[in-house]
Amino acid sequence: MWSYRPEWKNSISVFESTSNGGQSTVYEMKLFSHTGSYIETSQHKLVNDLILNTLPIESFYRKVKVVITDEKKRITKKKVLEIATRENLLPEAGDAFIIANGYGINHTNDTYLSESPYFEEELTNWLINSKIGLLGVDTPIIENTEEPYKPVIKLFEANPEMLLLAPLLIDAAIIKSGNYTLSCLPLNIEDTSGMLCRPVLISE
């Protein structure tokens, strides 16, 4: 499972095995909240008391608008707005909204993080003004590393109630822009602001 840092890598080992004479097969797991795909509250970046297990299940199982762009490196407001307008997917306050270009399928590559696409600042500002309730992305980082502007912090500061779901594994050759149902239920661990989940898009 991909991780941002080597020291954040999840590990799974056999604690007891029936093949070695044990009564049961049991695994021991060391899991980090921000590996693979995860969902987080603004507490990941801000000082507040917003944690996942206090949220209703509807926060993680909901309708979602998905925009698939063909932009490879720089994801722009112009392109996202063009697709969202054409496909009647313009986000309203509280909506779940996913922006993807298919980059997530590269998660096994060593360059997955270093070559990650990023959001231009104008796009981030548009998302802030849209007041969406959940943002999903298939890139592990939306920051412009050459000209940093802290997009995640800006999104959370403008709307602390927003959830961030990343990085998604979306095959742009299969998934098209449109309306879906999103299931992104995290492990129900108390007092955590970020947790692993297995996001699933369900076609309408």
Write a structural description.
There is one protein chain. This protein is α/β, with parallel strands linked by helices and 204 residues long. The chain is built from three helices and twelve strands, in the order E-E-E-E-E-H-E-E-H-E-H-E-E-E-E. Helix 2 (121-130) packs parallel to helix 3 (151-158).
Give the helix/strand layout:
Layout: E1 11-16, E2 26-30, E3 38-40, E4 61-68, E5 74-75, H1 77-86, E6 96-100, E7 118-119, H2 121-130, E8 134-137, H3 151-158, E9 163-166, E10 178-183, E11 194-196, E12 200-203
Parallel strand pairs: 4-6, 5-7, 6-8, 8-9
Antiparallel strand pairs: 1-2, 3-9, 3-11, 4-10, 10-12
Helix pairs in contact: 2-3
Please give a handful of descriptors for the protein shown.
14% helix, Glucose Oxidase, domain 1, alpha/beta, 2 domains, two-stranded antiparallel sheet
